[in-house]
Amino acid sequence: MAKGKIVAGVLAPHPPHLVYAENPPQNEPKAECGWETLRWAYERLRSSLARIEYDVIIVQSAHWRTNSGTHFLGVPHFKGLSVDPVFPNLFRYTYDLKVDVPLAEAICQKAEAAGLATEMMRNKDYRIDYGAIVSCHMTNPSWDTPIVGISSVGSARYFNMDVLQAQMFKLGQATREAVEASGKRAVLLSSNSLSHRHFTKEPALVEDMSFEHINNHNQYLWDMKMIDLMKRGKSREMIDILTDFTEQASAETDSGALSWMMSAMNFPDYPAEVHGYGTVIGTGNAIVEWSQA
Ligand code: 2X7
Ligand code: FE2
């Protein structure tokens, strides 16, 4: 069997607004328009991934938070309705997705052997979180590829970012080893925003783009700093300052997904492709691809 490979890693943020503005049949609320810079960036990502063959999408989501270690979706097929708890007006999405359970189990076993607390999630009625759904939908709206779903842990808040990063480096290595042993070609999704300070009020028409802008300039400068490092192939440096970034920009990198993905990809030293950047209710979001095909 040929060795498996991570063919791409993507920073794939999950504001539900993006699915809302796309108007797919799965989502009940309907929009007029909105957040085009980010949605067009996802279009460019899809064109880029269409040139690569892959068997599985592995997603770590900021909104499946497990404080008792890392959990993995462990049921082959999930169907249900996912409602965003903060934006139920925008996201009521009927999902129907397949899970690559053998690969999830292999990552879980390797992570456990590396000393992490892990668990396979076997509840067939479990409601998939909107973070994983939005990132996967925007990356592959046809849902024709199975996923591996990984939770995020609360270590950044319970301990600190450095503890979280140490854990995510182990999880990343376990992911790479399991993918290689599987013979499969995997795309990784780090499902999180960059800076993450929200406005607390929505305009009457949510997709009225005259209200959309970054929450504050400090946050914007931090986002640009991170994106500059990505563009220059400096992922190690980016990870080194992630603790300060996460704290000062209230960034959603406190989920650990970006640290996990960079470790799984062995800290790429080549330029990432930035498909686009934009704000959603004041938060900073970038769609960024590291291709290894
Ligand atoms: O989960 C999110 C997010 N990360 C950013 C913006 C808006 C809503 O939800
Ligand atoms: Fe989020």
Which SSEs are present, and which pair or pack?
Elements: E1 5-11, H1 16-22, H2 36-50, E2 56-66, E3 70-73, E4 77-83, E5 92-98, H3 101-113, E6 118-121, H4 130-139, E7 147-153, H5 155-158, H6 161-182, E8 185-191, H7 217-231, H8 235-240, H9 242-248, H10 257-264, E9 273-280, E10 283-291
Parallel strand pairs: 1-8, 2-7, 2-8, 3-6
Antiparallel strand pairs: 1-10, 4-5, 9-10
Helix pairs in contact: 3-6, 6-10
This protein binds (3E)-3-iminooxepin-2(3H)-one (2X7) and fe (ii) ion (FE2).
(3E)-3-iminooxepin-2(3H)-one is lined by residues 14-16, 193, 252, 280-281, 283.
Written overview of the protein:
By secondary structure, this protein is an alpha/beta fold. The chain has a single domain, classed as Protocatechuate 4,5-dioxygenase, Chain B. The protein is built from ten helices and ten strands. The protein has helices spanning 16-22, 36-50, 101-113, 130-139, 155-158, 161-182, 217-231, 235-240, 242-248, 257-264; strands spanning 5-11, 56-66, 70-73, 77-83, 92-98, 118-121, 147-153, 185-191, 273-280, 283-291. The protein has a six-stranded mixed sheet with strand order 7-2-8-1-10-9, with helices on both faces. Strand 9 and strand 10 form a beta hairpin. Helix 3 packs across helix 6 and helix 6 (161-182) crosses helix 10. The two termini are 18 Å apart. The relative contact order is 0.24. Residues 14, 62-63, 131, 193, 252 line the site of fe (ii) ion.
